[in-house]
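tokens incoming
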């Protein structure tokens, strides 16, 4: 029986520029540079085929205490792949996930986790890249980045376009605030109250020709801090402590610092 163990790393948005929503697919276009963070925490995932005619998916925290996860992305993905007849309906999985990355941290851990399932399916030749690219938006907008195993990438359109870029080899320090931010609420506030920004440094930073990273911004920052005052206070406190720019990744609630090497 094939069994695979994966390290599921988080990612940060070095910058995040949000465009208008497509009313047909209900998704926003975006421009961002994703960086894989390998010098910090990661989830541990074990996947193998199940001899029982059922999927067994279990989550544990860092102390091995069982977690109850609503809207499990693995169940959703397996159901979708079988419904679309991409994988055999008689294929069942046993998946164990040790969650070391905090939930609702804005680090893409759910997408990183389910990318491991796609890597497993590729390994056992139950799926191909064409099928993945065709259906990826129905699974999660960040998933393709993790499947490709890039250290750094320019991610655009709806997250389904991923272009490898030179890894800037930045030393990233993550700050887990344990403040749960709702992506849905953040985008609703952004659509209602914030103007659509354009990151004028996109082309320069795409190729990392300019090293002034402190100039980069996250278009969702104002909405996140507007909705979650404690996170805004934490951000200000950290900036005073380190006397450097503290960044917000994704829709919160993790903050990060680019450290000196």
């Amino acid at each position: 029986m094939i069994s695979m163990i994966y390290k599921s790393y988080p990612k940060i948005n070095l910058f995040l520029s949000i465009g208008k929503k497509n009313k047909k697919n209900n998704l926003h276009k975006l421009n961002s540079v994703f960086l894989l963070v390998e010098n910090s925490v990661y989830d541990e995932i074990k996947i193998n085929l199940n001899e029982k005619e059922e999927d067994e998916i279990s989550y544990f925290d860092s102390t091995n205490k069982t977690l109850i996860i609503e809207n499990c992305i693995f169940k959703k993905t397996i159901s979708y792949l079988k419904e679309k007849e991409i994988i055999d309906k008689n294929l069942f999985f046993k998946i164990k996930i040790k969650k070391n990355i905090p939930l609702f941290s804005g680090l893409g851990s759910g997408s990183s986790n389910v990318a491991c399932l796609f890597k497993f399916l590729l390994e056992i030749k139950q799926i191909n890249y064409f099928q993945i690219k065709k259906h990826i938006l129905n699974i999660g907008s960040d998933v393709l980045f993790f499947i490709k195993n890039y250290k750094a990438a320019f991610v655009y359109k709806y997250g389904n376009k991923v272009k490898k870029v030179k890894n800037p080899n930045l030393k990233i320090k993550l700050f887990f605030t344990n403040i749960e931010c709702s992506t849905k609420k953040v985008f609703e506030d952004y659509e209602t109250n914030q103007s659509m920004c354009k990151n004028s440094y996109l082309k320069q930073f795409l190729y990392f020709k300019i090293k002034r990273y402190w100039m980069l911004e996250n278009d969702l920052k104002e909405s996140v801090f507007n909705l979650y005052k404690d996170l805004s206070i934490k951000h200000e406190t950290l900036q005073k402590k380190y006397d450097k720019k503290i960044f917000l990744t994704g829709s919160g609630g993790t903050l990060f610092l680019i450290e000196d090497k």
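note: The helical segments are 73-83, 109-123, 129-135, 143-147, 183-193, 202-206, 221-227, 229-242.
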